[in-house]
């Protein structure tokens, strides 16, 4: 049986400091059984990406309250690729306008959770997308 | 957040205030009194409530409340370059605004510079970019700060920068008026984080600021504590009072140890509060808060000036109560919250725009927020009589309960130690508990939020968006870099060394900061040098190396 837990790195980028949502989510994720590395506010994309690689994270979760998230997400994706974490998924949440969701998805963001998202919806996505595949039975 | 009336200029400015009490009779013509009270003398009434304008000010800080001093309708301005915001201010004044509230962008408010390699996309996004005295001069191009009351929604740097501006323009500090919000401890609790300022040094900066204000700028006021942010981060009305009073008590205790008398500092304060969606609980909170403040100032700090005991409250309605789904419903929420503020007897109100959960407010949404207050002032009659809910069995019981619970939580916070509770994360953990409970209540349906977990819309149109002029901000950042390279490096280094020395020593930090801004230091440099003096990194992001080698 595979006992590996889903691992994530959560944090905010640059001067964005409205961390209430992502802190709440960190608790919800922990209660749901995820391993959460919470980096708080004021990170560079490279800092988040480096930690994600060193922690062998399944995904990086970033939350935004400012309107520059398209550029910030691109920075994060680029930084992940630069530090050898290109396969690590990015999940974005916060004040994201619906018009920008297709743009973010086209950039490769695995999940976008704007203001209308709720807890069951987010957890269902996390389980569906990141749950480790069951270990195959040898010689079954 | 502090009104011009509060600064002692009521008479000359009252005619310009954009909300007025236009009628004291009901619409059907029944005359009303300033306030209503028990018919018979009642010592219990005098002890717990008192008439409006009398100790312990439960029923309001002024005898006739809005009949003599209307609340000030506040609109926040701030976006893009300093010139963009100067234009916004000019429009606001032309439209009849009595005062100006300025918000700076997240870069400036966190003591960082717009040419920081990580931060360019954030510049000018949610406020004006003001990082040097040159920027301040551009923003104040149409304003005489000895005549117009500018309320700065800023904690870091703005006050010494205004002092520097006054010195540069030969203005007497005693004539400079305005206000800002020097509550650094809340910065550590609402997402500011210890990468920018440690709780210990932040507390020191708050004390330095209040001491300097008390001794040098008699017309300057302070929004303190900034309890609004604590509520938005995740506290109840009880938590707002308890945490806010813990910050006030710690700060005032340390100020009095420096020889600043309570009557020198308390009259300059306005509690920065919120009005959330629970109408009666918020009214009870404002009433309990005034009573706790009055008794604390008189009985514990020995205040003798009534202005120290009568709390003024600056209120902004609750952003976190607003939701994305069916955003027009937020107009109703904001209207009820504005009503709660008025029934609770606050001195100034900013009404949230309905589109806050969507992004930066549009001009239309700002106008609707203003109209909300005008409807309450002119049509609803909400300001007709002081403390209209006073004497309600329900509201009085709620007021007593909020007060008792707040005092119990305050004692708990102080027993643990306020600074210790900030440093060890236990206060933030308390806020996280509250947010999680709220979330769970919404998920379980115990807390109904229309459009979110009940009466959900079948489809919604994407909301309108506000866009900032990028070209203007680009030009501003390029100019900022040019101006930095044009400074006198010797004078700059000398001034910043004084900033470093004052931060490391025990001399008041504000004078050296003002001198540094006067010779062109930037907010990133002043804050960075202070961080170095405290053993922290010059750049919170660890990207920019300190250009200064101070020891």
Automatic annotation (TrEMBL), chain A:
<keyword id="KW-0479">Metal-binding</keyword>
<keyword id="KW-0846">Cobalamin</keyword>
<dbReference type="InterPro" id="IPR006158">
    <property type="entry name" value="Cobalamin-bd"/>
</dbReference>
<dbReference type="GO" id="GO:0004494">
    <property type="term" value="F:methylmalonyl-CoA mutase activity"/>
</dbReference>
<dbReference type="GO" id="GO:0046872">
    <property type="term" value="F:metal ion binding"/>
</dbReference>
<keyword id="KW-0170">Cobalt</keyword>
<keyword id="KW-0413">Isomerase</keyword>
<dbReference type="InterPro" id="IPR036724">
    <property type="entry name" value="Cobalamin-bd_sf"/>
</dbReference>
<dbReference type="Pfam" id="PF02310">
    <property type="entry name" value="B12-binding"/>
</dbReference>
<protein>
    <submittedName>
        <fullName>Cobalamin-binding protein</fullName>
    </submittedName>
</protein>
<feature type="domain" description="B12-binding">
    <location>
        <begin position="5"/>
        <end position="133"/>
    </location>
</feature>
<dbReference type="InterPro" id="IPR006159">
    <property type="entry name" value="Acid_CoA_mut_C"/>
</dbReference>
<dbReference type="GO" id="GO:0031419">
    <property type="term" value="F:cobalamin binding"/>
</dbReference>
From TrEMBL, chain B:
<protein>
    <submittedName>
        <fullName>Methylmalonyl-CoA mutase</fullName>
    </submittedName>
</protein>
<feature type="compositionally biased region" description="Polar residues">
    <location>
        <begin position="21"/>
        <end position="33"/>
    </location>
</feature>
<dbReference type="InterPro" id="IPR016176">
    <property type="entry name" value="Cbl-dep_enz_cat"/>
</dbReference>
<dbReference type="InterPro" id="IPR006098">
    <property type="entry name" value="MMCoA_mutase_a_cat"/>
</dbReference>
<feature type="region of interest" description="Disordered">
    <location>
        <begin position="1"/>
        <end position="44"/>
    </location>
</feature>
<dbReference type="Pfam" id="PF01642">
    <property type="entry name" value="MM_CoA_mutase"/>
</dbReference>
<feature type="domain" description="Methylmalonyl-CoA mutase alpha/beta chain catalytic">
    <location>
        <begin position="26"/>
        <end position="532"/>
    </location>
</feature>
<dbReference type="InterPro" id="IPR006099">
    <property type="entry name" value="MeMalonylCoA_mutase_a/b_cat"/>
</dbReference>
<dbReference type="GO" id="GO:0031419">
    <property type="term" value="F:cobalamin binding"/>
</dbReference>
<dbReference type="GO" id="GO:0004494">
    <property type="term" value="F:methylmalonyl-CoA mutase activity"/>
</dbReference>
<keyword id="KW-0413">Isomerase</keyword>
<comment type="subunit">
    <text>Heterodimer of an alpha and a beta chain.</text>
</comment>
């Amino acid at each position: 049986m595979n006992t590996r837990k889903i691992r994530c790195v959560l944090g905010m980028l640059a001067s964005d400091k409205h961390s209430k949502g992502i802190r709440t989510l960190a608790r919800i994720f922990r209660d749901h059984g995820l391993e959460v590395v919470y980096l708080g506010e004021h990170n560079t994309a490279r800092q988040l990406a480096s930690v994600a690689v060193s922690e062998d994270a399944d995904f990086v979760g970033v939350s935004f309250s400012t309107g520059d998230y398209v550029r910030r997400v691109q920075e994060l994706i680029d930084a992940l690729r630069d530090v050898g974490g290109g396969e690590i998924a990015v999940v974005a949440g916060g004040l994201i306008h619906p018009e920008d969701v297709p743009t973010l998805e086209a950039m490769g963001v695995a999940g976008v959770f704007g203001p209308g998202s709720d807890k069951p919806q987010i957890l269902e996505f996390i389980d569906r997308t990141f749950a480790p595949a069951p270990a195959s039975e040898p010689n079954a | 957040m502090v009104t011009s009336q509060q600064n002692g200029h009521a008479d000359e400015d009252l005619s310009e205030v954009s909300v007025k009490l236009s009628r004291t009779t009901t619409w059907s013509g029944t005359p009303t009194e300033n306030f209503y009270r028990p018919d018979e003398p009642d010592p219990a009434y005098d002890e717990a409530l008192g008439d409006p304008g009398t100790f312990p000010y439960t029923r309001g800080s002024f005898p006739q409340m809005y009949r003599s001093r209307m609340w000030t309708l506040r609109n926040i301005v701030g976006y893009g370059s300093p010139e963009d915001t100067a234009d916004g201010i000019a429009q606001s004044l032309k439209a009849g605004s009595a005062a100006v509230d300025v918000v700076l962008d997240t870069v400036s408010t966190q003591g960082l510079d717009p040419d920081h390699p990580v931060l360019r996309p954030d510049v000018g996004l949610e406020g004006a970019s003001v990082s040097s005295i040159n920027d301040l001069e551009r923003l104040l191009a149409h304003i005489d700060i000895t005549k117009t009351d500018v309320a700065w929604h800023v904690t870091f740097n703005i006050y010494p920068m205004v002092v520097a501006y006054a010195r540069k323009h030969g203005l007497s500090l005693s004539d400079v008026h305005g206000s800002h919000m020097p509550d650094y401890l809340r910065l550590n609790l609402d997402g500011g984080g210890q990468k920018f300022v440690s709780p210990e040094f932040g507390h020191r900066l708050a004390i330095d600021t209040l001491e300097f204000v008390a001794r040098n700028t008699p017309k300057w006021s302070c929004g303190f504590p900034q309890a609004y942010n604590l509520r938005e981060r995740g506290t109840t009305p009880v938590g707002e009072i308890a945490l806010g009073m813990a910050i006030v008590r710690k700060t005032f205790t340390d100020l009095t140890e420096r020889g600043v008398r309570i009557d020198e500092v308390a009259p300059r304060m306005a509690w920065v509060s919120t009005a959330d969606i629970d109408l009666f609980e918020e009214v009870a909170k404002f009433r309990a808060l005034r009573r706790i403040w009055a008794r604390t100032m008189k009985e514990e700090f020995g205040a003798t000036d009534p202005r120290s005991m009568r709390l003024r409250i600056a209120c902004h309605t609750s952003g976190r109560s607003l939701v994305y789904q069916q955003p027009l419903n937020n107009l109703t929420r904001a209207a009820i919250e504005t009503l709660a503020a008025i029934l609770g007897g606050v001195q100034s109100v900013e009404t949230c725009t309905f589109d806050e959960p969507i992004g930066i407010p549009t001009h239309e949404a700002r106008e609707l927020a203003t109209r909300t207050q005008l409807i309450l002032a002119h049509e609803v009659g909400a300001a007709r009589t002081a403390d209209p809910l006073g004497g309600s069995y329900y509201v009085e019981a709620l007021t007593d309960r909020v007060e008792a619970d707040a005092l119990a939580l305050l004692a708990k916070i102080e027993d643990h130690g306020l600074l210790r509770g900030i440093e060890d994360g236990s206060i933030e953990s308390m806020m996280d508990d509250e947010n999680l409970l709220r979330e769970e209540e919404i998920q379980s349906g115990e807390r109904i939020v229309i459009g979110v977990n009940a009466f959900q819309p079948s489809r919604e149109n994407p909301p309108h968006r506000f866009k900032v002029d990028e070209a203007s901000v680009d030009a501003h950042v390029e100019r900022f870099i040019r101006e930095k390279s044009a400074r006198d490096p010797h004078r700059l280094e000398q001034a910043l060394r004084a900033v470093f020395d004052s931060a490391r020593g025990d001399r008041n930090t504000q004078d050296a900061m003002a001198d540094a801004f006067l010779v062109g230091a930037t907010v990133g440099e002043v804050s960075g040098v202070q961080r170095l003096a405290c053993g922290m990194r010059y750049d919170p992001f660890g990207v920019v190396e300190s250009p200064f080698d101070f020891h």
